[in-house]
Design goal:
This protein is of the alpha/beta class. It contains seven helices and eight strands. Strands 1-4-3-2-5-6-8-7 form an eight-stranded mixed sheet, with helices on both faces. The longest helix has 14 residues.
């Protein structure tokens, strides 16, 4: 027997509509509870919300936005955020392609995370994959100087396509070069799903691309922690 879905929010509801954000913008939305200009981070497709909650709890000084296409997942995440009393998280039930293009100003985000989005393995469904050239272009535009796009997948074919799409975006540069991706990232929060996949031997791929303006600056902080994925 499945559990009934609980609709009440045990605290402040962190959910927003596209119209809410379009009307006043993220700066004003977060300013209602948090003073001053702050770093802003986006997770696309937060699923069960473990990763987003961990980031928000670990960095209370950062503003976090989570986008999820599922009403049920967004509702459940809203309840988790409210119970945790996190005032640095806002949620959107929306298509990421639409929200990223319409709701974020150029240079507004410091980080964008895409963790294990649906790989749509059948060829006829490939156009439904989240990581597409247009979305990556919009992501690069929304990132500020020094901003980073992080993508993870456990699907080998999708990983190859992600590599092609990310490396073709001229506004971004591979943070893990000369390797296209890492098979593990030291210090990264591990979700329950990721632990299960590792336990059964599914191959994991972690990509990180930064804005190209950083190519002449100091190397990334985790340069000494890189692992050869081959």
């Amino acid at each position: 027997m499945s559990r009934s879905l609980k609709y009440e929010i045990p605290g402040v509801d962190p959910r927003l509509s596209l119209a809410d954000v379009a009307a006043i913008g993220w700066e004003e939305i977060f300013a209602k509870t948090r003073a001053g200009r702050r770093k802003r981070v986006l997770e696309i497709g937060f699923g069960r919300g473990e990763f987003l909650l961990a980031m928000a709890e670990r960095s209370p000084e950062v503003d976090f936005v989570g986008i999820e296409i599922s009403f049920k997942r967004t509702l459940k995440m809203a309840r988790k955020v409210a119970r945790a009393k996190l005032d640095n998280v806002r949620l959107l039930e929306a298509r990421a392609e639409v929200a990223l293009k319409q709701l974020f100003l150029p240079g507004e985000l410091s980080e964008i995370w895409v963790n294990f989005s649906d790989p749509w393995p059948k060829a006829r469904h490939a156009h439904r994959r989240l990581i597409q050239p247009d979305l990556v272009f919009d992501a690069a535009l929304a990132l500020n100087e020094g901003g980073a796009l992080y993508v993870a997948t456990d699907d080998v074919r999708y990983a190859h396509r992600i590599d092609q799409v990310l490396s073709a975006e001229h506004a971004l540069v591979n943070h893990y070069a000369p390797w296209p991706y890492l098979v593990s990232v030291p210090g990264r929060f591990t979700t329950g799903y990721e632990q299960q996949w590792r336990a059964v031997g599914r191959p994991l791929h972690f990509f990180a691309y930064t804005t190209r303006s950083l190519t002449n600056s100091a190397p990334p902080d985790d340069a000494a922690l890189r692992e050869d994925p081959r």
